[in-house]
What does this fold into?
Amino acid sequence: MTSTPTVTPPQRDPADVAPAESYRPADPVWVYRDGWRAGVIEAASPRAVTVTYRPGSHHRGTGVDTFTAPYVTSRDADDPTLDNRGLRLVRRRPAA
It folds into this structure.
């Protein structure tokens, strides 16, 4: 899916819902939490996924929550707050 989804989870065609276990860590996704929000998969199991997501469009903060498959879908659109987070991390070295 290239843009924000327009249907709520109950309106989604079950044939369009990927199984939770098909997602992998770092996959970009949309999650439904009071509207569709950009997110990134942290972990997946056969029943649900754990996602870091942007709870609102006006805040740079993130939230982490668990979602079942109907509340998650793939995302192609870039999100500068979430995508490439690993590139901004700096490895610390303990003081000698």
